[in-house]
């Protein structure tokens, strides 16, 4: 059965993102060759330009895909920890821990900000921010958290997790830095609690 044009384009897009993920993880953004990448998947540079505009556009699509997967993994870890406060804390700790993943380190935490700019402006980070804001509003409504601007609290919590992850990714000893970062994150976020933890 012959594929439609839109099915072929979607397949080409998937192929390019998968190949780019591998190339960006192994070589980094600067050293990843688009000619090699497109040849490996049997496509032309024209297919890359048509789908993504340029190398930066392809990189943004890869970052978005990985960042979205990270958010899903963090959410699953939060759900496994329970609900409310425990979930919020577990999601932040999980996000920080993902900085040990070489693909996340290289693409999202090191090259991502250098190529795409401020992570708080990335679409994937923005959706995470809104989920965090809603969780904070719910916890404030239950009296678990101090009354504070939910947007500000969400941005500070997300920023703390992101900066902790970036610190780990840039560290020569990420496994040694991880527990320090997670502990400091927990202590900072606990400052929002209406009552001190037992």
UniProtKB/TrEMBL annotation:
Alphabetical list of Gene3D superfamilies matching this protein: Tetracycline Repressor, domain 2
Molecular functions (GO terms): DNA-binding transcription factor activity; transcription cis-regulatory region binding
Positions of transmembrane segments: none
Boundaries of every HTH tetR-type domain copy: 10-70
DNA-binding region: 33-52
Record carries keyword 4Fe-4S: no
Top-level taxon in the UniProt lineage: Bacteria
Keyword Nucleus: no
Pfam families for the chain: TetR_C_41 (PF21351), TetR_N (PF00440)
Keyword tags: DNA-binding
Signal sequence segment: none
Protein name: AcrR family transcriptional regulator
Organism, scientific name: Rhizobium rosettiformans
Taxonomic lineage: Bacteria, Pseudomonadati, Pseudomonadota, Alphaproteobacteria, Hyphomicrobiales
């Amino acid at each position: 059965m012959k594929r439609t044009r839109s099915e072929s384009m979607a397949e080409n897009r998937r192929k390019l993102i998968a190949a780019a993920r591998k190339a960006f993880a192994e070589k980094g953004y600067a050293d990843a060759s688009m000619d090699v990448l497109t040849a490996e998947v049997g496509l032309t540079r024209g297919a890359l330009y048509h789908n993504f505009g340029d190398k930066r556009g392809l990189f943004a699509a890869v970052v978005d895909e990985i960042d979205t997967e990270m958010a899903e993994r963090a959410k699953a870890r939060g759900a496994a920890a329970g609900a409310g406060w425990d979930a919020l804390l577990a999601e932040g700790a999980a996000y920080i821990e993902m900085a040990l993943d070489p693909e996340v380190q290289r693409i999202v935490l090191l090259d991502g900000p250098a190529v795409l700019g401020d992570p708080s402006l990335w679409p994937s980070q923005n959706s995470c921010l809104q989920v965090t804001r809603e969780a904070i509003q719910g916890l404030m409504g239950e009296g678990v958290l101090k009354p504070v601007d939910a947007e500000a609290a969400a941005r500070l919590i997300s920023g703390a997790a992101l900066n902790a992850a970036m610190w780990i990714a840039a560290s020569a000893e990420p496994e040694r830095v991880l527990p320090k970062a997670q502990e400091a994150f927990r202590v900072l976020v606990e400052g929002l609690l209406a009552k001190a933890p037992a």
